[in-house]
Predict the 3D structure of the following.
Amino acid sequence: MKVTVIGAGFAGLAAAVGLQERRHQVTLLERRGVLGGRATSYRDAVTGEDVDNGTHLMVGAYAATFDLVRRAGAEDLLLFQNDLHIDYVDDRGWSSLDCPPLVAPLHLLVGLLGLRLPWSVRWQALRLGLAARFGEPPLGLTLAEYFRRTGQGADARRLLWDPLATAILNETPERAAAILFYNVYREAFLTRRDASRLVFLRRGYAELHERVARYFRHRGGVLCRRALAESISIEGGRAGGVRYSQRAETRDEIRRGKQAVEGFVDADAVIAAVPWNAAADLMPEPLRQQPPFAGLARLGGSPIVSVEMWLDKRVVDRPMAGLRDSEMEWVFDKGAIYGRTGPPQHLAFIVSAARRSAARTNPELIASAETSLRRYFPAMAGAAITRSLVLREADATFASDPEAEALRPGPVTPVRGLYLAGDWTATGLPATIEGAVRSGLAAARAAEAG
Ligand SMILES: Cc1cc2nc3c(=O)[nH]c(=O)nc-3n(C[C@H](O)[C@H](O)[C@H](O)COP(=O)(O)OP(=O)(O)OC[C@H]3O[C@@H](n4cnc5c(N)ncnc54)[C@H](O)[C@@H]3O)c2cc1C
C-alpha cells in the first residue's frame, strides 16, 4: 500500500515508521526543515548547546514512545530515574516526593508520607487515590470540580495537585477535563511502580527525531522536508494523494535561491498528522464544514513559556525542582541532563497554561526566573547570568477542557483512505508525546484495516 503521512511530529513519525516496517511504501511530508513539530530543538549558536522549544518530560508509562525509540536504536538518548523523585522548594524550604521501590500504588503512598505536607493533605491525597481506583469521573466534569468532589482542600491543591496537574495537562484545574488527569494518574501512579518515574532526554528532541527519521529512511521510507502539504486530493469520497509545495532543502539549494516546486504524491491512504488547527485547511471547502473537521475550529490552544538561562557557576544542585508559589513553575538543569556538570550551568524554566506569562515581555520573564533563583538558591548570590532566551509556544497544546473532549475525533474519517493522527485526536490522554505516538499507531492500524 502507498501511504502519505503529513507532518513529522511524534504522531506522524510513529505512523510512518510503523507502516514502513510492515513493508508499505511511505512518503512523509514535513513543512519545516527540522523534525519533531512541537517537541523539537535547535543548536544554540552562542553556547553550542541544544535548546528545546520547551523542556519536555516523559514518564515511565510512555510505553509506545519508548518502543518507537528502541526500534529506531535511539534508546541511549533516554535517561530514566530509578524511582519517581521530585524535589519542591518554597519559602519553607525543600521537600521531596521520593517514592521507594515498592509495588504500586504503595510506592506513591510512602512517597506522599515523606513529603512535607500537613496530615490533612496526606489524608485527602489518600481519598483521591481511593476514588481514582474505584471509578472514573464523568465526562464533562472539570478537574477543579473533581478535586472538590473527592474532598481536596485548598492546601492539597496548592501544595500537591495543582502544580502536577497543570504540568501534565497544560491547563488549570478550573478549565481542564477531569477525565484526562484521571487517566494519566491511573496509568502513571496506580499500575506499575516504574510507570511513574520521570524520563529525560540526554539531547535536544530534534536529535531523537533525526535518529527515528534515519531509521525510517534506512527501511526505504521517503522523507520530504520543507514540503508543505497544501491539499488532500479527494475524488469520489476517497483520498487519493496530496498536493504539496517544496522549498529549497539543502544549504546549497538555498544559497542558489532555488524556487519552491509544486508536487503531487499519490496514495492509497493519507494520514494527516498535523496540529488540530492545521488539519481542516487540508480539506476541500465543503468538507471543512462537516464533522469532524468543523469541530476542530472550536478547539482552543494553551500556551507554554520557557526561559533558558546560562550562569557562570553552578547554582541549582539537582536535575529539576518544582518552584512552588513562583511564576516559573519548574527549573531543569539542562546541562546536567545532557551529561555536562561543569560551568556554565544551563538552566531551563517552564510555565504551563501560561496565558498570563505569555503576555509579559522577555525582560520581565527573565527577571522573574532570576528572582526565583535568588529566592531559593543561595549560591545565586555569587553567580552571574551570561545568556538568556525566552521561548513561547502560543498553541503548545489544545486547551484540554471538557468541551474539547467531546470534539476530539478518532483516526477514521468519513473520507475513505483518509486518517487523522495527533495528540489532539481521541486518545484518552492529554496532549502528550505518548498520546501523539499512540494516535500515530492507531491511524496506521486503521489505514491498514482499510
Ligand atoms: C513547550 C512544550 C512543552 C511540552 N511539554 C511536554 C512534556 O513535558 N511531556 C509531553 O509528553 N508532552 C509535552 N508537550 C506536548 C508534546 O510536545 C505534543 O503533544 C507532541 O509533540 C505533539 O505531537 P504531534 O505529532 O501530535 O504534533 P506536532 O508535534 O505539532 O507535529 C505536527 C507536524 O506537522 C507539521 N505540519 C503542519 N502542517 C503541515 C503541512 N501543511 N504540511 C506538512 N507538514 C505540516 C508541523 O510542522 C509538525 O512538524 C509539550 C509541548 C510544548 C509545545
Observations:
- The chain has a mean pLDDT of 95.
- The CA atoms of residues 113 and 122 lie 7 Å apart.
